[in-house]
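Trying the structure run again after the queue cleared.
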Amino acid sequence: MRSYCIISLSILTLFTGLSQEPANGYSLEEAIAFALEHNYSAVNADRDVIDAQKQKWEVIASGLPQITGDLSYQNQLKQPVSLIPAEFFGGDPGTFQEVIFGTPKSVNAVGTLRQQIFDGSYIVGVQATRAFLSYSANNKEKTQLEVRKMVTEAYGNVLLANETVLLLEKNKANLEKNLFESQKIFENGLGDEESVEQLQITLTSIQNELKNSIRFQEITLQMLNLMMGVDIYAPTLLKDNLDSLTQTKIDLGILETQFQMENNVDFKLATNLNEQRYFEWKLARSKALPTLNAYVNYGTTGYATEFDFLKSEQKWFDFSTLGFDLSIPIFSSLKRSASTQRAKISLEKAKTQLEEAQEQIRLQFERAKSDYIFAIEQYGNSKNNLGLAERIEQKNEIKYLEGLASSFELRQAQLQLYSAQQEYLRSMVDVINRKTELEAVLNNNKS
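Done. Tokens:
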């Protein structure tokens, strides 16, 4: 009885846990949200931001008090000998007495506090850290937009592959039916063998396309998993279907959105480059300024003929020093001047690149709008063409069975239908992708 209760409780806990977990299915927005946390590039972009924050403190800390401790032990295996006039010791003038000073063993311990008082390059470095943090944040934003775009494309490709397989299976079933009927007609002497062979050729082609589409279906799902940052063999399910997702992406209102250059991430990155070149120029100029540092140390030294430094009777002699280091650049044979001029040239180039980037972004915006409008128009046209192609194929199928159309005419109508089907599916994916590209330029991911 006890074992039964334990098993029942385990099963109940298992199903309760499963019910609390989200279903392994994602809408497009859910897949994007998941990828923004788990995509490999997105994860590293987060780490880059943290790294930039640590680098900022690293720069700031270099100008704050620094304390170091040094401990040295010296054992003079052969002590140096000094010569002292012998007359100091009552000897003959002109002669020298050999003397050894100090003990062979000594220990020296010293702690030093250093403080930077003024350094122009430090000031510039601290200012530049803000620009670097801004670059890291903007680079993360750029990565997120790229991840969003890649996941959208991969998601659409999976839906496209799924719809393609369904259409090919439907076409295959319809062709098998037509082939069966044509064989019966031929066997009854009411048709020709060429009509049967034409249908066999078409059916074989569809069967090959179906096999390839099934394989491609697996590859597109693996690509989506890769973009989302999960195991490529994970059985990921998709909640959206191609038609409904396309309808949500048709929004002509976005074309009326006011374009704000400062919101575009490429403009932000170009601005960051301009700031970087500016601080490099300031850094080159700061090299002509003096630097001033202060230090104070405190230490103690012990002497002995044997290693007796750990004994309580060991004598220690303390010392302390306060000092300043002042370095003034005087003459560098115009090296600093050349470095400053080169930095100035780089700054001017960055300004020109920023102007060019603005024009390129404006052009990118206009092109994205045009591509989006064309994708919507193409979707409408392909939808109408698909309806026409279906009616034409149905009429030719009826005529063929009634002996009013040849197998060649039926095959042409069928190929036209298959082409219209693929164009229709591709047009839906294009609407989804073009909308995403326009959103990326606008940096508007709300819709």
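The CA atoms of residues 394 and 413 lie 9 Å apart. Worth checking whether this holds up in the mutant runs.
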